[in-house]
Amino acid sequence: MTRRDLDYQSAKELMIREHLMGRGIRDPRVLSAMREVPRESFLPDEMYAFAYDDSPLPIAAGQTISQPYIVAYMIEALELEGNERVLEIGTGSGYAAAVLSRCAAQVCTVERIAVLAQSARSRLEELDYWNVTVHLGDGTLGWQEQAPYQGIVVTAGAPEVPKALLEQLAPGGRLVIPVGVTQHLQSLVRVRRVGEGEGEYRHEDLGPVRFVPLIGEQGW
Ligand code: SAM
């Protein structure tokens, strides 16, 4: 069986109806982006048959592409209106960055593993996601050159919210990040920067999640 033999369209519609809308995803911008972006194009060949299963899947370098529901849930939690500059930490396959690129004006994404950053960059270019820039580096330090960001999403689990990300969040901006005391089980936290000052952040718990660890100077 090849990629072309699979009926991705109906599998994708089923995923959107059952796993996204059926579990409460409502933002039309997010639903339309999830409908548009071909998840199969971000997977290794041996995984393509599972492209629209609602589960994380292995990619190169021992990492994972996140479960579609979690991608949609985290992006919805950013409350984007389409005109924002957004930072993603943990490019992985590039899939979530592609979805984000349809919900915001500009996406900067940081990956610490060179082989993943390189292949995500080529794939995003090939598929013409022109408003995404992939940066190789330690995302626990954010990406100062393009700061501030109206939205920041971290797709790996941190022991605590990295200070650099709080600083790079614009006043009024939202940061969505898995935080936990162990490396593999976290709570998804949304931090709102309500003002300019240091103490002006509001934290909300959005529920339990399970991510690979965020490794770096302000991570594990
Ligand atoms: N968003 C990705 C996608 O759509 O495929 C899934 C990301 S995967 C769950 C988490 C990624 O975070 C891995 O690729 C891992 O290498 C990366 N990562 C971990 N620590 C990092 C750090 N300090 N800076 C940047 N990337 C990091």
UniProtKB/TrEMBL annotation:
GO cellular component term, pick one: cytoplasm
GO molecular function: protein-L-isoaspartate (D-aspartate) O-methyltransferase activity
Broad class of enzyme this protein falls into: transferase
Pfam families: PCMT
Catalytic residues as annotated in Swiss-Prot or TrEMBL: 66
EC annotation from Swiss-Prot or TrEMBL: 2.1.1.77
Keyword terms of this UniProt record: Cytoplasm, Methyltransferase, S-adenosyl-L-methionine, Transferase
Primary location group: cytoplasm
Similarity comment: family membership: Belongs to the methyltransferase superfamily. L-isoaspartyl/D-aspartyl protein methyltransferase family.
Function: Catalyzes the methyl esterification of L-isoaspartyl residues in peptides and proteins that result from spontaneous decomposition of normal L-aspartyl and L-asparaginyl residues. It plays a role in the repair and/or degradation of damaged proteins.
Name recorded for this polypeptide: Protein-L-isoaspartate O-methyltransferase
Organism in which the protein naturally occurs: Geomonas silvestris
Lineage: Bacteria, Pseudomonadati, Thermodesulfobacteriota, Desulfuromonadia, Geobacterales
